[in-house]
Structures are given as C-alpha cells and as structure tokens.
Amino acid sequence: MLYTRVCELLGVECPIVSAPMVGRATAELVAAVSAAGGFGLIGGSTAGPEWLREQIRMVRERTDRPFGVGFISSAPGVEALVQVALEEQVTAISHSFVDPSSYVDAAHAAGVKVLAQVQTLAGATAAARAGVDLITAQGTEAGGHTGYNASLPFVPAVVDVVGDIPVLAAGGIADGRGLAAVLMLGAEGAWIGTRFLTSREAGGATWAKAAVVGAGTDDTVLTRAYDIAQNAPFPQHVGGRVLRNQFTARWHEHDDQVLARREELAAEVLAAEERGDTQVAPVYAGSAAGLITAIEPAAEIVRRIVTEAEDMLRKRTAQVLR
Asked: Are 108 and 221 contained in the same domain?
C-alpha cells in the first residue's frame, strides 16, 4: 500500500491532491476526491467569501474526510477568502504565486496547515523559510498557470533545497506511472489537475472537458496571451498552459499587440466562452491531456492511479534490477 509523509501530514489514505482549479474544483469534486482517500482542494478564488463558506460546508455534508482550499494568492481580495478558510478550520490552505510568509502564523494558530505551490527554486526556498508544511513543485507541463521549469529536473531540485519539508510534484501526472515516477524523484505525492478536470464531478462546461479528452500531448502551449487580454492577476514569471487554437496561433508571443487591443480581445474571448467556441476561448489543460481518453468519476480516477502506481513500483523494479 502506498503511504508517504503526505498521507500522515494531511490525514489521508493515498498521496494524491486534486488541484484547486478555479471554477472546476468545487464542493462536488473535492468531496469525491477526499472520500476516495485523496485530498481535495476547493478552488477558493472563484467568488466571494460567502460562496467559499458555502462550498466548505457542502463538502462537509458529503464527507468527513480531510480537505482544504487553494488560492490564487496574487489576486485582489484574497485575504477575506483566506479568513473564511481559517474560520471554517479546513485541514489545509494552499497559496500560489506569492511568498506565503504573511499567511503562515495565522494558519498555524488556527490549527490549519499551509501548502505553497512554487515554480522556481527561489520560490521554494522562500516557502521553506516561511515555515510552510508542504511544498508543491509545479513543473511547466501543468495545465493552467505555471512556470517554465520542467518537472523532471525541478522536482528533485526542490526536494534538495527545502530540507525536511515534504514535496508534492505537479505537472504532467495523469496516471499511476506519473505518480510512481515522481515518488522516485523524491516527492511524497502528486498534485493533479488536468486528470480531475475531466472527471464527472468537476465543474465547468462540457465542451471544455470534451476538448481536453480529445487533445494530444502536443496540443498545448504555455502563453501569456490570455492573461494579457483579460488583465489577469498573475506574475510575469508564469504563463497559462492552454489547448492550442486559432487565438494562440494568432496572439501567442505577440504580447505588445495583445496589450494594445486588450479591450477588444477580452470581449472576443468572453463571447467565445459564452458560446463554447474552443478556437477562441481558453481551455486550460496540461500536457497530460494526451493521456486522458474519457470523462470518469473522480473516485475511480483516484483508485486507478494508486493501483497503477503500486503495480509499477513493484513490477518495474524487478524488471530493471539484476
């Protein structure tokens, strides 16, 4: 049976954390992942404090297992949302795209653990210095907003610099092979987004899920075009990994032109989202989309990844060691 320090730290059965995807990781998905033995994170930056409080309580109506809330902590108004999570005493909160130093003491005083998602070694060092409980090393293969370091070298580099703090690996993990691989890199578990994006319980439009299922490994691009067009609150050292489409073919790496036409392009993207036009609307997904062939229940995804990883760790070792 797989069991790592992440299991002990978060009080879960298996070292799988579902990413707090905005608009996708709502109560239904989080409860399903946690009930299956993983650790679900609500995407806490979607709406206001009362929405978040309601989501937290909806998870508790569905399961008594541990879960948490993740934040785009560079977004305005996040402090009020964090306060709700602390008042509700979720198991853990996760911060991304900021130095988490200012959030740690209050969380620990409330008995809440702190995760920090990082995309650089400098970010990992700062998070470790801040005293967080768990660090997510996010590779560029990840869907949504991420940095430019590939998972294979980045994950062990983070493990090496953060001392005894457990590390989760994120980016490109969609099956048991990925989980087994990052455990061999020194990670204590996997933070998984795109695979759960295509679960039945994930929020969001059916057309977006279908686009991810139909995509291949070559079909994503890391771009700032959408962030610039929509004036999104992300730092410049990250981009958004999306499925390639006509919009990215025209505007990727033409940042100055996008900025000059921001209002026009923002309206174009909004209209495309409303009509489900994947050639213009962003579909955030990682390179692992090429490993996904169906929309399935989240609990089934959790169980299969764990079973595959256990089999891989047992059988592959015997195959390659003499």
From this structure: no
